[in-house]
Amino acid sequence: MGVQQLEEAWALRTDARETRLFAAPHVPVALSQLGIVRPGDRLVAFADDFADAFARGFDACDVAMVGEPSVAAFAAASEGFDVSFDAEGPHLWWFVNSIGGFGLRVPGLRALGRAAREVHALLVVDNTVASAFGCNPLRLGAALSFEALDRVCAGDAPHKLVAVSVARSQLKRHRVDAAAECAHALLEGCGLAKLDMTADEAGVLERGLDTLDARMQAHFDRARALAEYLAANEMVRNVRYPGLSSHPDHAAATGILEHGFGPTVEFDLIERSAGVLFDALPGEFRTSPAGGATTRLSTPRGKQGSTVRLFAGTDDPLIVAATLDNALRK
Asked: Which of the pair, 294 or 48, is modelled with greater confidence?
């Protein structure tokens, strides 16, 4: 299967009008490299995981970072900006993760999509954590959906790949969806070169697409089991997982996520740093590839901080829990 066939398969999977694959380390860099956010545009983003990438990659436009993935926060940051859906711009962009940021926040994408269209903003969603298996932003109101494909490739991606998909234009009350049409025009005019991929590299992605549902369901199920274990563990606190009723966005997550609540859990350690915990854990918990079979831990606030983020693998959650428990007790 060649690149064009892979793009067509991904577009079919995400119910997109069109999908393009290209090389980029993560979604904010991909959005910057496309060049569709232009000088004179305003970009409103909730993406504190990648605040530095937004500060560096979009210096020619007006960037506003918001502290909440809410309609009110995005609307307030958009006030006073004259915008149109004309392909020439200027454009107002709203960027949010379907699951992301510190605390694994989950926005109400339907409400954000409606509000974006009311102010002529183009809603862009980073769907990497939830994945196409767990969420379909294009059906919920996004004009563009991006996804880094590490997890789709089961951690075997030959290089960092990102898929960008544009929403179909739906006729509603005899009006064309102007946001979808504008997003399509911008993507078509961005001059993105066709991705050069060998047959072996394309085969990795093709096999990943064929096995995506079963693998992602395993990731989601193990994340839920580990979240419940951590929520009952007296050695950690503030367990953040959209599937827990204690999560501030649990209701929103129930409305937009599918097949579970994602593969990720975040928690804080009590009276120790993440670095100390990692020193007591087997190395594969840190070195396993993103999206691979082995559960992976990261430090969104650095090793000196107390916050740990866990990406569930397809390994046995009982063994993972026992390993974490032994490390926490040391």
From this structure: 294
Number of other CB atoms surrounding residue 302 within 10 Å: 10
For residues 183 and 236, state if they share a domain: no
| Integer angstrom CA distances of residue 263 from 112, 219, 221 | 23, 5, 8
Question: Residue 275 pLDDT > 70, yes or no?
Answer: yes
| Burial zone of 228 (CB within 10 Å; 0-12 exposed, 13-18 middle, 19+ buried) | middle
The answer to whether the bond into 282 is cis (omega within 30° of 0) is: no
Task: Using the predicted structure, report yes or no on whether residue 321 has a pLDDT greater than 80.
Answer: yes
The alpha carbon dihedral of 191, 170, 95, 209 has a sign of negative
- 220/196 same-domain check: no
Secondary structure of residue 284 in the 3-state scheme: helix
Q: 30 pLDDT band (50/70/90 cuts)?
A: very high
* 132 and 34 within one domain: yes
Write out the residue range of the structural domain in which residue 193 sits: 3-205
Tally the domains of the chain. 2
Does 228 lie in the same domain as 282? yes
Tell me the chain's radius of gyration from C-alpha atoms.
Answer: 20
Instruction: Look at residues 92, 93, 44 and name the one whose alpha carbon lies nearest to residue 69.
Output: 44
Across 263-277, average pLDDT? 94
H helix and E strand count, the chain: 14, 11
Q: Which helix (H) or strand (E) covers residue 53, if one does?
A: helix 51-57
pLDDT at residue 92 is higher than 90: yes
pLDDT in tens, 145-168: 999 998 888 888 778 899 999 999
**Based on the domain organization, do 225 and 245 belong to the same domain?**
yes
In sequence order, what are the beta bridge partners of 167? none
Task: Say whether both 218 and 157 belong to one domain.
Answer: no
